[in-house]
Specification:
Layout: E1 6-8, H1 18-22, E2 28-29, E3 38-39, H2 50-54, E4 60-62, H3 81-90, H4 104-115, E5 126-130, H5 133-155, H6 157-166, H7 168-176, H8 178-189, E6 201-208, H9 214-231, E7 235-238, H10 240-248, H11 251-255, E8 262-271
Antiparallel strand pairs: 1-4, 2-3, 5-6, 6-8, 7-8
Bound molecules: flavin mononucleotide (FMN).
Flavin mononucleotide binds next to strand 7 and helix 10.
Length: about 290
């Protein structure tokens, strides 16, 4: 990231030191409250915009945060805690979609939710939106094919013992999930779509694989996208089977022309639900240890 130009307007600055307090990289330094904060570490600035966002006097000019990116916070627009809790409670995985396209503006609103999620060191995730039916079908087939190929060795008792001996942690769950994998393969063979459930849109979350926390970033973005989708009446499904296939088989990444050095870290199928849940079901009770 190039070093951004940051300046503090001497006339507007009230020397409250708020920028010093919130900057995660200690870009600003203020020896005492009579002094204007000095820019001492612009070279490691993340361009997160905290300094500009905190300053009530508009005293900071940041090259990476032009005025077009600065918006006022409107308290009245925030959902109440009850509204937010209800949105979280009613979100469900949707596996029955209408054959109705999702308008570009609606997808953009969902992606805007995603891109506004936090990311380690402010390094955003990249997205691919797939609406082409043939490409969606190919992803479904490659995913089902991947599980079909691995079903036989995974189901073999001798191979199971060997896998458990050498990679107990990663294989235990895979063996536990064998009945699910079998169901997936059989259902695909019957001509159904157990991977994308005929969703009209698939969003792929990818990033440079060498970035720290790339998977976490992608999944935080995904959850934002999911909640925004829910608020718009758009259903979503975390397509973990696609994700698992991408991890070990490069064909989906090749099909989607994922850049070299990038990896798929999450994928979300979206579309209008063809069914409407009447109730929401309380999840398992909180498992927490207070220290
Ligand atoms: C990481 C992850 C991967 C998942 N992968 C799939 C998947 O490939 N197919 C599927 O039908 N559900 C998938 N799910 C959904 C879960 O299996 C589960 O049904 C769901 O989280 C529980 O219901 P809810 O989302 O409606 O609360 C996945 C969920 C997560 C968090």
């Amino acid at each position: 990231m190039a070093m951004p130009k940051i300046t503090v307007d001497q006339n507007k600055c009230k020397r409250d030191g708020l920028c010093v307090l919130v900057c995660p990289e200690q870009v600003f330094e203020q020896s005492d409250k009579t002094k204007i904060p000095a820019i001492v570490r612009a070279d490691i600035c993340l361009s997160c915009g905290h300094c500009v966002a905190i300053c009530p006097h508009g005293a900071i000019a940041h090259e990476s945060v032009p005025s077009s990116r600065i918006r006022p916070i409107v308290q009245q627009k925030l959902p109440t805690p009850e509204q937010l809790e209800h949105l979280i409670c009613v979100r469900r995985s949707v596996r029955a979609f209408k054959d109705t396209p999702v308008a570009t503006e609606v997808i953009e609103t969902i992606l805007n939710g995603a891109r506004r999620a936090p990311s380690a060191n402010n390094r955003p995730t990249k997205y691919i939106v797939i609406q082409d039916r043939a490409v969606l079908a190919r992803i479904r087939d490659l995913t089902a094919g991947y599980f079909k190929k691995n079903l036989r060795p995974l189901g073999n008792r001798i191979i199971q013992r060997l896998l458990l001996a050498f990679a107990k942690e990663s294989m235990e769950d895979a063996i536990h999930l064998l009945p699910d994998f079998r169901m997936l393969v059989e259902s695909a063979e019957r001509g159904a779509d157990p991977v994308l459930h005929n969703a009209p849109v698939l969003i792929i979350f990818h990033a440079k694989s060498s970035l720290s926390f790339a998977a976490v970033n992608a999944n935080l973005a995904l959850q934002n996208a999911w909640l925004v989708a829910q608020s718009l009446g758009v259903g979503a499904l975390y397509t973990g089977y696609v994700q698992a296939t991408c991890e070990r088989d490069s064909r989906i990444s090749k099909l989607l022309e994922i850049p070299r050095g990038h990896r798929v870290f999450a994928s979300l199928a979206i579309g209008y639900p063809s069914v409407r849940f009447a109730n929401w079901i309380e999840k398992e009770p909180l498992s927490v240890r207070w220290v």
